[in-house]
Write a structure and sequence with these properties.
Elements (H helix, E strand, L loop, with lengths): L4 H26 L1 E6 L4 H12 L3 E6 L3 H7 L11 E4 L2 E5 L3 H10 L5 E4 L17 E6 L8 E6 L4
Parallel strand pairs: 1-2, 4-5
Antiparallel strand pairs: 1-3, 3-4, 5-6, 6-7
Length: 157
């Protein structure tokens, strides 16, 4: 059996389309972020808006008992902040900047998630000041393990 050039090109194009469609679906699923936040928190709203603007498909759950959310996801007490998000199996706690989230998605380390404890002035959602300085911590899946610095935010030069 021989294949004509026209049939070969048609099959090649159809196969390429299937591959591209599959990649697009995979990327769309990887960009789905579920955010748990207090409905009255303005900084949480700002951070959520920044995630939408960055292209994430955001699903928001307004919660009045954020302590229960922290316990549900086993956020270490010293890493807690005002909002909690889930992104592709990782926890994102607090005002984590986009650079750190992009690094997380590119490197895919074996961690539970990232955290910016508290509410640092100038962090994303807290003014987004280019002169802000703070640390983004990686926290482990192993309960009680010490967090490590994953990304440092330093003033723009």
């Amino acid at each position: 059996m021989t294949m004509r050039r026209r049939d070969f090109l048609g099959c090649t194009l159809a196969g390429g389309f299937v591959v591209l469609l599959g990649c697009r679906v995979a990327l769309a699923n990887a960009g789905r972020m579920v955010i748990y936040k207090d409905p009255l928190c303005g900084c949480c709203e700002s951070w959520t808006a920044a995630m939408r603007a960055a292209g994430f498909a955001v699903e928001v759950h307004n919660e009045t008992d954020m302590t229960a959310i922290k316990h549900r996801f086993s956020i270490p007490a010293d890493m807690e902040a005002c909002h909690t998000a889930m992104l592709d199996g990782y926890l994102i706690e607090g005002h984590v900047p986009l650079e750190a989230i992009r690094k997380l998605m590119a490197e895919r380390p074996d961690i539970a998630g990232l955290a910016v404890p508290g509410m640092p002035a100038g962090s994303l959602g807290m003014g987004d000041d280019p002169q802000a300085a703070y640390e983004v911590y990686a926290f482990s899946k192993i309960r009680g393990a010490a967090p490590t610095v994953f990304h440092s935010v330093r003033p723009a030069i």
